[in-house]
Every structure is written in C-alpha cells, then in structure tokens.
Amino acid sequence: MLRRLGMAVTAALLGIAVLAEPAQAAEFNVKNYGAVGNGSANDTAAIDKAITAANAAGGGTVRFPSGTYRSPNSIHMKSNVTLQLDAGATIMGASGSGYDKPEPNPNDKYQDYGHSHFHNAMIWGDRLTNIGFVGAGTIDGGGALITGNPGSGKADKIISLTRCENLTVSGIKLRRGGHFAMLINGCKNVVSDHLTVDTASDRDGWNIISTTNVTITNGSFAGNDDALVFKSDYALGQKLPNGNVKVYDTKLSAGCCNALMFGSETCGDFTGYDFQRIDIRGANKSGLGLVSMDGAVISDVHYKDITVTNVKSPIMIKVGARKRCGNSPGVGTVKNITYDNITINGASGGFSPTIHGDQDGRVTDVTFRNVKINVPGGSGTTSTNPPSNDRTNYNPNSIGTRPAYGWYIRYADRIKFLNGSGVSFTNNDGRPAVITDNSSDVTFDTFSFERGTNSPTDFLFRNTNGFCVRNSGSPRIQNTSSTEKCGSATAS
Question: Residue 404's closest CA among 337, 444, 327, 457?
C-alpha cells in the first residue's frame, strides 16, 4: 500500500498520469444463495438469486464450486454477469415440464421452430451486455433436452441468447444440448477460447446467427447435425448483418450433417470470414459447406490450412432460390472466396466437390491454391449431362449425381485452381475429372488429376466462355459451345 502511495506521489510530482488499478469483479457463490450442488436438489432458484445479486451490484462473477447443480427450470441470465464453473462443477438439465414456455413470434414462418423461439432453454437472455460463461466445468442437458419441437415446459437448447453484446464463452464444456447446445442471434462482440461442445448424441453444436465480430480459438465441436454453423434468419423480424469472424485452431465433426457450414438460413448478408488451421473429422453432408438460399450475398470468406477426412460432400458452394425470408428476398450470390492449403482424404462415398450457382445468382471469383481432394470414386461411365437441381433445397443431395468424379461447376465465373490443386480417387471411376456448365473464365493451372480406365475425357467444358487448362500434364479436353482463353500465365 505504501509503495503504491509513494509511486502515486512521485508520479504526481512529475506530472505523469496514473491509471487506477482495475477492481476485481465481486464474486457471488451460488451456495451462499441456497444452491446445494448434490445432483438431486433443485438449484435453479438459488442460481437465479445469485445472478440477480451480481447484476444488482453492478456486475460480478457467479461462481459454481465443484458439484452437480440440478436445474429443471430455466436460468435467467442478466447483464454484467459471468458464470464461472470450477473444475468438477456441472449445471445439469432435468426431465419434467419446468422450463420456460416458448415466447410467441410473429415471424416463425420464416425459419424452423427451434430458430424462432428462445425462452425454452436451460439458460436464456435477451438484450444483455457483458456476459460470460467461463471456467473448467460443464453445462449438461442431461439427456432431457428435446431434439425436435418441444412441448410446453420442455427445453431444446442449453444456452439461448438474443441481441447480446460482449459475450465470452471459454474453457467450459457443453454436453447433450438437445436441438442446440448454443444458439445466439443478433449478437456482436463474441470471444471464445477452448470451448468444448460434445452433443454428437443430440443435434447442433453452435449456431451463430446474424452476429458480427466473433473470434473462436482452440475450440472442439462435435455435433450430430451441424457442428459449427453461421446463419442469418428472420426470427428477430429483420435482416441483420453477419461477419468479421475468425475461427482458428479448431476441431470439428458432425454425424448426420455439416461440419463447418454457412446456412441454410441466409437472409442477411455475410462478409469477412477467416478460417485457419481447422481439423474436420467426419460429416455426412458437407465438410466445408457454403450456401445462399434466402437472398444473402456471401463474400470474402477465406479457408486456409484445413484438413478434412471422412465427409460425404468435401466442398460445396451453392446458390439456391428458397427465398424463405421476410421483405420479399431475391436470389443471392457468392463471391470472393479463397481456399488455400486444403487436404481432403478418405472421404466417404457421396458427392463430388461442387460449385453450383443459380441462373439468377452466380458464384464468382473463387480461387483454390494447393487444394487436394481425394474422393472414393468407384462409379462407372455415366451420362455427362447436367444433373438435376432443386433450387429450394440446400442439401448436397439437392443436386443429382454429379457427372464428374472431381469438380462439377455450373453458373460460375472467374474460378481458378492454382499451385498444385488436384483431384484423385481411391477406386477407378469412369467419369471425367472436371465438368463445367454455363460458366466463364475457369482456369486450371498446375492441376493434377487421375484418369479413369473408361472415362470419355478428363475435362469437359460446356457453354463455358474462356476456359484454360495448362501446366497440367497431357489432359484430354472436350468442349461444346465453349471457347479457350489462356492468355498469360496465371499469378499464384
């Protein structure tokens, strides 16, 4: 104390400004508010009391010492409150009908039920600022959360937050999340480090909806449905922006569906996404999926240093025309996307990597550098005609069997494959390596490919104005109503 006083006096004499030492946030131990933590008592009321006390004091940390805190009712989060779960502490969901009822939403026709209602959750809050979920403990749905549409008093989410600002979620684990382990909508300024989501027995990991300024590092997300997904719906009654997002050093896996995904709800525009050092291990739909279904413009998305194994659809970009959004949306577009140093191996049988725009909304300016994809192959010689396409469906199976074992590209412009990108198969395949339809300015430079024993050609260009294949061995090239344009060497 005397040392600090002396320093302050000296600084004053010298005319130096001194910043006050930050005060430590007050701590509110849930056991001091009646929580038992024995796994059988109902601790919800005590937790709510501690949260209310911290909020009333101007902010603080609500601490959960080691123990199991059974919560069969909804916990109501408030501003300026951080929940800290110590090692060995678990907030446990419970069966019954004690969770808050879903609030009415006049806009629920524009998205699925689970996206439209937020109060039917273990923990929820609206219009909150400066909140956090930190520590080394766990929030566990306990197998009691609903994976479909819950009845009154049932919950389908662990954490549900709308219109929040300054959110931290770090260190903790979310387990058995029902429909969503965590869903946030209309938020900004989100930071997450070393968050673990283990809801592979239920459905979605983390849905980040209509949210800006997000940084996620060192995460581990295992979902059955979507593991980590970025969406923009109309649940809050307006189209909201999305973007300025960074996801680094994170592991993802999905059972039935998508690992790292945009959509399918895509009302507001998305821009500025940076994904680096991502490890994806399993997805029965898309490994890296990016779709615009409801009018959104998706731009400036960058993938770098990513490994993918055991996925059904390695990379899929699609523009659709579902238009499930308020204010009469049109058809969106996808543009300015880059993939650098991507390795996809051991894919399960399924769909070829695909870029599929729409006749009313193109995919433009996509560049692949050192992107190597190995697919199962095993198909015989098939029709090379354009596959069918359901413009209202985002799933990889909305496009029929691709006529190429490697890349199938349609309604796309200024697409480049550079720096040793390529495709290969595990089992001999009778389809071409690449087919493009209704596209322009498609370049393959130093592109590697395998040739199936009975494949009719290696590259097939149809109605493609300005294709180029160079520095790629001796490919067989067929074109129909297409023009070749290589020009000068493409810069890497």
Answer: 457
